[in-house]
Amino acid sequence: MSTDKPFAGSKDRILFTPGPLTTSRTVKQAMLRDLGSRDHEFIGIVRDVRRRLVMLGDAAESEYTAVLMQGSGTFGLEAVASSTIPQDGKLLVVVNGAYGRRIVRMAAILRIETRVLECPENRKPDLKRLESEVAADPAVSMVAVVHCETTTGIVNPIREIGRIAHAAGVTYFVDAMSSFGAIPVNLRDCHIDYLVSSANKCIEGVPGFAFVLARLAALRETKGCARSLSLDLYDQWAQLEGNGQFRFTPPTHAILAFHQALLELEAEGGVAARAARYESNYRTLVSGMRKLGFQEYLATEDQGYIITSFRYPQDPRFDFGDFYDRLNARGYVIYPGKVSDADCFRIGNIGRIFGSDVEDLLAAIDETLETMGVEMQS
Ligand SMILES: Cc1ncc(COP(=O)(O)O)c(C=O)c1O
What we know:
alpha/beta; Aspartate Aminotransferase, domain 1; Aspartate Aminotransferase, domain 2; 2 domains; seven-stranded mixed β-sheet; globular; binds pyridoxal-5'-phosphate
């Protein structure tokens, strides 16, 4: 099965990013084949991928289905936004970060009437306010939220928001891009109608497609609703269900890699085991960073274990570009910040990385700060 260490014998850097992520060698090796898109073996693999995805959502195939959509994660989000909201529908987006704002922007381009519940980036959404906004606006037909707002690393309460959407009788759309496969979710219990994630996040595949987990009863009602040909979710589903094929060229190699990644997720012990590894990476990272004098952007109780935003040190000798380049030269890739009101950078805990990799990164950060002459406050 999977090799324990990423890139043993290879020169690739370790990606402590929100994606694409470090993947196992065996996931990459799975791509060393050329399968035709109509090949029976390929169609069988797509079928198995879809079945396994529904299982990861803790759901039954009689109630939920998985639709693969070519492109990055945003294409999956746009497939849902553009093809499941009727012309007279209205979207309410809960926003506490850049990815929530991206859904709002998407809806504006699609000319979908939208209401925005804007919350501070360092806070979980105000559920009472959400409840009253949904109640006050009977035109709202869908509520959307981002599960792990990768902007900061905050994990939003999708179960509670689902309860509010369900009680109001509106559909519920969750962007679980950076959480699915690593934070357990039960689609039915959370009242989720559409959940989107992508191949290159916590399932540890390579980029190439997004996937939508859709509640069949909701999806069946969306025939003819699409505002785009290529992103027509219903049509994509109908063809995958019919002859098992994609409507347009599928990312065959990325799907082979993803199938292998799903087998490796199962071998690791499923979502619970992956969650435990990532959480342990997170704990090692945060305790090491605190010892070095760094401060997290979020309060600990709001911080998830997927990705962490750290504030820049106060010493003016700290320059993020220089810090990034020096770490990069040592073989570690971190990520710039995305928070609007503070200078931060981010370190991801996801992908084929282990505690020893995080410890190596911490040692490299320590040495890098020293060579930059940055003094940390204790
Ligand atoms: C929560 C969330 N939504 C959407 C996206 C966009 O995904 P992509 O860059 O694959 O289009 C990301 C990417 O990191 C994300 O973290």
